[in-house]
Amino acid sequence: MKKVDKKVADQYFKIRTTMIIIFLAIGFSVSFGVAAFADVIHETGATIMGMPAHYYMGAQGAVVTFVILLFLNAIISDRVDKKFGIDDKQNEQISGSGSGH
Question: Which sequence ranges are marked TM in the entry (predicted)?
Fold first, then answer.
């Protein structure tokens, strides 16, 4: 198994941790921010696809946002992995998977 320099590993984990914190903050703000400001949003008369904006975000918008965040996390994580030389094909070759284990 290939050893990784501690400095590179620390940088990798710092980027991944930052990504997780950002995605959780967005998810938290979408879920609880809309509920906290529901009255204000309702008073503005904002609508999304004909429904009141605060109701839509509570019922479907938060779920849709989470799904989008999951896809973004996967795409960005793959790019970060490639940047640091983490590749599934290379790992399969190193571990010897597919050789009948």
Answer: 20-41, 53-76
**pLDDT tens, 7-55?**
888 999 999 999 999 999 999 988 888 888 888 888 898 888 888 888 8
8 Å CB contact between 49 and 56: yes
Residue 84 structure tokens: 């640091």
The torsion angle over the Cα atoms of residues 45, 48, 49 and 54, rounded to 10 degrees, is -80
**For residue 39, which of 52, 48, 27 has the smallest C-alpha distance?**
52
d(CA 94, CA 86): 12
Q: Dihedral of CA 53/58/60/61: which sign?
A: positive
Residues 24 and 47: their CA atoms lie apart, in Å, by: 26
pTM of the model: 0.69
Dihedral pair phi/psi, residue 18, rounded to 5°:
-60, -45
